[in-house]
Model the fold of this input.
Amino acid sequence: MTQWNPWHGCRKLSAGCQNCYVYRIDSAHDKDASIISKNTDFNLPIRKMRNGRYKIPAGQKVYTCFSSDFFLDEADDWRIDAWQMIKFRKDLQFLIITKRIDRFGVNLPHDWGDGYNNVKICSTCENQDRADYRLPIFLNMPIKHKAIVCEPLLERINLSRWLHPSIEEVVVGGESGKNARICDYDWVLDIRNQCMELQIPFHFKQTGAKFIKNGRLYHIQRKDQHMQAAKAGIDFSG
Done:
């Protein structure tokens, strides 16, 4: 996995941000995660080694802006150059997860058209309120590769109205950290059933730290959360 964090820091926006891992990690290092700053590896996608090869070799999936939000308003000017690097590196696949899909069109490249083929945009929705607000916007955006991310999943969500054939995948996961809120397996299965009914691929990414199954609460260590989700064997390829 290759990460590219062109800028760092974010502002909490909705319920899913309450226990943000960026804030948690920064706090452990006496940093203020609400301060937005451009990172020194801003130009990582086009940076080369001494032998002339790119530091990120062709064919890599690039997890983009995981220590912030790509569509943060403080980063509007920086995003212009970031888009240019993404366009230039057509040999990479950029994955962008956002809580700010309503700002997607701000400083969008003039040649975006119906989307760059090497960009996958994922809109998050942690509860029904955010699903009902963000997903209608998301579906109307000119994006070639779309996915929905319900992480942290905070309640039962009905996604059926928004599971359009343009959605390539739905990803579900619980919340991590010592203050994590619960994730109920019934909520996970409910979304899975919605996806299966409409033939939309589904991925159960992680259980979270507090996981309820069959009415029993399990406290799951961080190192086991992805593994336990995989052991459930409920992924659906569509």
